[in-house]
Design goal:
- The complex is a heterodimer of chains A (350) and B (242).
- In chain A, helix 4 packs across helix 5.
- Chain A is α/β, with parallel strands linked by helices and 350 residues long.
- Chain A contains eleven helices and ten strands.
- In chain A, strands 2-1-5-9-10 form a five-stranded parallel β-sheet, sandwiched between helices. A three-stranded antiparallel β-sheet of chain A has the order 7-6-8, with helices on one face. Chain A has a two-stranded antiparallel ribbon with strand order 3-4.
- Chain A has one domain.
- Chain A is globular and about 70 Å long.
- Chain B has one domain: Rossmann fold.
- A five-stranded parallel β-sheet of chain B has the order 2-1-5-6-7, sandwiched between helices. A two-stranded antiparallel ribbon of chain B has the order 3-4. Chain B has a two-stranded antiparallel sheet with strand order 8-9.
- In chain B, helix 5 links the parallel strand 6 and strand 7.
- Classes of the chains: A alpha/beta (350), B alpha/beta (242).
């Protein structure tokens, strides 16, 4: 008699993986807390987080979108202007330190920097550089729009029952004079890179965990009932400034984030972890869920992840009739990912 | 002052009202060029005129204008493009939106409407001022008529003007405040007893069914025209009202 004899099928590779079709693999997660259609759920984070918001909406869950587009704006243009991508127009929040920054700013714990970038008469928000397709018409507009996003971000902290946060990166860029963080290296999407001010940091496990834990505590302080569902984006880095191969840097970064999310889910009863990262990246899925560039996740992969996500709550994989995904809405659901722009700007920067 | 009114079935309420109001405005002449639904898709620009593209529109123009089959912009001082698929536009008064975003929202709202289609054709043949009226907000039975928060509606009108129409020597007018209820509807009393647009054929000038919530009655038309004429003639004494 030994402890392994009583373990369920899912604990054994041979029984739960080798002997099955990959599409029949089950029991990848058991949610710590259930989601109901009455729960208000907000979503933030890396590119992959966007799929969760869309999927929640299409299955009749109450996806909380606090920052809404003007009602007559077309769906295509709403996406172009980053409405309905996350619960507020924060753009991608790749790192746990960026999340902490948004939480501190929105709750008024730290004052918001005044930095605004200008190029060819248009103005850009360093903290949401691609939030408007052609930038803003003035510095004042940038500030007002950022304040609106902060107001809406705070609203989602206060009103959500569950916040889903997808961790994406550990590589980050800081302003060394004022110690705030940019989501993208200045000089890529917008702004001008200044090596004496803009500093790179590959964040450690300790730092990533500390910042995430602090963020969750700050949010719980103003909304004690708020629960968190953490995921790690399965999407590899577009580029790494670490000096390592992008393959090695990706594995390094994702391993840290996976460990951070897992540890917090283990330590805190109000935090859970959903294994989207494993579902896409595990060798048992043979990389079939990636696009030909082996980076983007194809829609079959997204659907497969969502099937597992919702089966954990006893919800089928069918979308509500009104949300059925046609070709055009599928196109509209493709993730908005600023980091991909590194590909376009890479040669100038690196 | 000669005013050219171009539109669809919603022009019916204005025409009915004008028949009674005209004597109060001796210096104003309204000429109507109207046919129901989307008929004015068949309107072409030819030699500086707006010309009907088919016989049905031509006959309707002759009937509604009192004998003119096309629009010669030289004959009018201002123009009103009314109805033609343009609905209400609402912009949250408590949210911030960038200028380029609001501009895009205006374009998205307008771009597929017959109203813009006719507006553009008209603008291509005249630089004179063009006023625009949207189709009346629908009337609704079960709304709280005491809810007078119309801020998003008037903000939407202001945004359409400042981000689109103003730059084109034009202006969209709101429907009279008195006719609004619950912020996005027309009070039911203004849709009751409305008549179909009379273009001289069968079915014209008849009562709309009572369930019709899209078309408004003569009283609505009267209030609308009084507001419009006070915009046109700000110094003239107010004649209208109920």
């Amino acid at each position: 008699m030994n402890p392994y004899e009583k373990l369920p099928e899912k604990a054994f590779w041979k029984l739960s993986v080798s002997s099955k079709s990959m599409f029949d693999i089950e029991e990848l997660w058991s949610p710590k807390f259930k989601l109901s259609s009455k729960d208000k759920i907000s979503t933030y984070g890396s590119c992959f987080a966007q799929h969760i918001g869309f999927a929640l909406k299409s299955r009749g869950f109450d996806w909380l979108v606090a920052e809404k587009a003007p009602e007559r704006l077309s769906a295509e243009n709403a996406k172009k202007y980053n409405y309905g991508i996350f619960s507020a127009r924060t753009g991608n929040i790749y790192t746990t330190s960026l999340l902490k920054q948004w939480v501190e700013w929105s709750l008024g714990k730290v004052s918001v920097p005044e930095e605004v970038w200008e190029k060819d008469g248009r103005f850009f928000d360093p903290f949401r550089p691609a939030i408007e397709p052609d930038g803003f018409s003035s510095k004042e507009e940038v500030v007002k729009s950022r304040n609106e996003a902060l107001r809406c971000f705070e609203k989602t902290i206060l009103d959500s029952d569950v916040m889903v946060f997808t961790l994406g990166l550990t590589e980050s860029w800081f302003n060394s004079s004022f110690l705030y963080e940019y989501p993208m290296c200045p000089g890529t999407v917008a702004g001008r890179y200044n090596p004496s001010v803009h500093k790179f940091e590959s964040q450690s496990y300790e730092k990533a965990k500390k910042n995430l834990a602090l963020s969750l505590v700050m949010m719980r302080k103003v909304n004690p009932e708020l629960k968190f569902l953490l995921t790690v984006s399965p999407v590899p880095l577009t580029a790494s400034n670490s000096g390592d191969s992008v393959i090695v840097a990706t594995m390094h970064s994702k391993s840290i984030l996976r460990a951070v999310a897992g540890q917090l889910a283990k330590d805190k009863d109000y935090v859970d972890y959903f294994p989207s990262y494993e579902i896409i990246n595990s060798p048992c899925f043979k990389g079939v869920f990636f696009e030909p560039n082996l980076r983007g996740v194809n829609h079959v992969g997204v659907d497969f992840v969502m099937k597992h996500f919702f089966s954990g709550f006893g919800v089928g994989s069918e979308c509500k009739k009104s949300s059925l995904v046609g070709k055009s809405s599928r196109r509209n659901m493709e993730a908005v990912c600023e980091e991909e722009l590194l590909d376009a700007f890479g040669k100038e920067v690196l | 002052m000669n005013v050219c009114v171009i539109g669809n079935s919603h022009v019916g309420a204005l025409k009915k009202a004008w028949d009674e109001l005209a004597c109060d405005y001796p210096n104003v002449n309204l000429f109507f060029f109207a046919r129901g639904s989307n008929s004015l898709e068949y309107l072409n620009v030819k030699n500086g005129f707006l010309v009907p593209g088919n016989d049905k529109v031509k006959q309707a123009f002759i009937y509604t204008s009192g004998g003119r089959e096309s629009v010669d912009p030289k004959e009018y001082d201002v123009f009103l493009v009314y109805g033609l698929g343009l609905g209400g536009f609402f912009v949250g008064n408590d949210s911030f939106y960038s200028r380029s975003l609001l501009q895009q929202a205006c374009i998205d709202h307008l771009k597929k409407t017959l109203s813009l289609n006719v507006f553009k054709k008209l603008r291509s043949i005249t630089d004179k001022k063009i006023y625009v009226g949207h189709s009346p907000l629908p009337a609704a039975h079960k709304v709280d008529e005491s809810d007078c928060n119309n801020l998003d509606y008037f903000n939407g009108i202001e945004v359409l003007n400042s981000h689109f129409y103003e730059g084109l020597n034009s202006m969209i007018l709101p429907q009279p405040e008195k006719t609004l209820c619950s912020g996005r509807f027309t009070c039911r009393s203004y849709s009751s007893g409305s008549f179909t647009l009379d273009v001289g054929n069968k079915g014209g000038g008849e009562l709309h069914p009572e369930v019709d919530v899209k078309h408004m009655n003569k009283m609505f038309g009267r209030l609308w025209l009084v507001d419009f004429l006070s915009e046109l003639l700000p110094d003239q004494e107010f004649y209208g009202g109920e």
